[in-house]
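User: I'm putting together a teaching handout on how multi-component assemblies are represented. Below are the sequence lines for each component of a complex, exactly as they appear in our records. Could you produce the 3D structure of the whole assembly as structure tokens, so the students can see both representations side by side? Please keep the chain order the same as the input.
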Amino acid sequence: MANISDVVRLSGVSKSTVSRVINNYPHISKEKKELVLKAMEELGYTPNLSARRLRGQLSTTIGVIVPRIVNPFFSYLVDAIEKVGYQNGYQTLICQSNEDKEKELAFLNLLKTKQADGLIMTSIENDWEVIEPFTQFGPIVLCNEYVNVKSVPIIRLDQYKGAYMGVKHLIEKGHRKIAYCTGGLFTEFGKDKDRNQGYQRALEEAGIKINPNWILVNQHTIEDGKRVLKLILEMKERPTAVFTGSDEVAAGLMFAAKRHNLTIPDDLAIIGFDDQPLAELLDPGLTSIRQPIDQIGKKAMEVLLELLNNPDTAPVTYELPFELVVRHST
Amino acid sequence: MANISDVVRLSGVSKSTVSRVINNYPHISKEKKELVLKAMEELGYTPNLSARRLRGQLSTTIGVIVPRIVNPFFSYLVDAIEKVGYQNGYQTLICQSNEDKEKELAFLNLLKTKQADGLIMTSIENDWEVIEPFTQFGPIVLCNEYVNVKSVPIIRLDQYKGAYMGVKHLIEKGHRKIAYCTGGLFTEFGKDKDRNQGYQRALEEAGIKINPNWILVNQHTIEDGKRVLKLILEMKERPTAVFTGSDEVAAGLMFAAKRHNLTIPDDLAIIGFDDQPLAELLDPGLTSIRQPIDQIGKKAMEVLLELLNNPDTAPVTYELPFELVVRHST
DNA sequence: TTGTAAGCGTTATCAC
DNA sequence: GTGATAACGCTTACAA
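Assistant: Of course. Below is the structure of the complete assembly, with chains in the same order as your input.
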């Protein structure tokens, strides 16, 4: 693999001049510049990024941490981020944490070792106190996930409002027995706490009391959705509608409901979350809360780039709007 | 950011000894080793990967090139690859080519600049003659995609057999008017040529002549599928079944067909490809050709690891089996 | 078992 | 405009 010294030999100029050509410095004589360019071309020379990084340059690489890339929400998010990055000359490192604290730490180390100039985190496994120290090595932008600190830029959705919107829609459709499936836990401080509050608030406003039997926690997949339906069937008092935290759970639920000859939405109304392509294709079409994935991805990357170019930019929080997409499952 | 010299200062031993501790060399005295370990701990020291790479060490990083990460087939493939990599101490760089030749070349350069020790390509945009030279910088494994050369390891599926299987299934169900949707072109040498041949062969065997009007090329998305149905409706002579190259196209097709009050499979039978989670959820369930994604991903990474540890291993081709998953759309 | 020193490929500093 | 030279952080002969 050709290196700068090879270019020096072939072109007959000094290392510094070659470096200047590589980096597009303004004041170089035309002849030398061409000499160098020709030599580089001839040798198929590519600057060694490890060396540049070591030398303390920008790595022109950013990392995106996602919990699971097979989740369409995250693959679309990564896609949006990557596009903006590429347009700006950045490589995007996609890092899958698998919701593993250790793995997340390994990825945070990319910052320390200058393999990435900045990081976008779309999920957080470790406590913020653990993550915070890494910001001294490079900017971190939170996207989708958030923490209650002012020092970090956050691109988020108002999950409270999203859940509130969905539950309210069900209430307006006449439902009063509304079950709630969440990917997190139903606690005041844990994961998805905002959505929980949105659910509670919507019910409260309508004067409906929460039935704890109808709170189903830690549900993520299509299979989970199928199991949830079984649980519902076994209930003495059944809900007439279910709010779910993901289209996948909703899809599994709908699938199993149809198997058991329930009519949707008459016997059971279902509402999903994310508005994945899947939602439209189900029969009946799934009412869902659309997250503007492209926009939050784009914004996150833009904020990160701004921070990279201008480290003193004050951290901001952006909040993007949800949209309720009503189809025939409610 | 603490470096090796900081550790040297704090521990009081030499740089080489510190390095030996980092790399788990066998013969170090217990005391010194502990001294070093303690210092590293105290400083929060992480070896600088760029420096290690520059020094010519393994980067313990491999790259996977995919055309589009939002395509579930590829996100699941990446997931499988990444898991095996992680178990073996490798970081996985996910590279999205967006079917762009330039971008693919940029990723191939990772090998040149030692940012990645090896590469798995799940799609090929440039000609093999362009890609081949990069193999001198590190092993490349082809996964899913293939070329007709003996010098590169290939993990592939017999696409010919997959398509043949699906079309034959339709014929056995009594269909003789079978349309064909492909993501590629219907040419002898281009993309998806093997599937094309499988389709042709199955028809031939049944003594059915191909109707060129029913060959629909370059179809990829759900929206494409919807458009295809419109085309079918406008045909003077309509096919009774459609073989598609992807579950997404099939899903779009089914969606539009139902909108137009066609009964599936009676008015139109549909068969998909990939057996994505979606296939089960559609109504009626989509008959599909399952690709053993986990297996090919796992195998690809295993082959790459073998090649990394043992560069002289002769390149092999693995061919994994498809499986026809029959549901109610046929 | 440990330490010294050279070198990996760049770029920044300084001198000319 | 151009060229020496040192430095980035690490590993590995070689020497002790």
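A couple of points students might notice: Residues 153 and 315 of chain A are 4 Å apart (CA to CA). Chain A touches chain B through 46 residues (CB under 8 Å).
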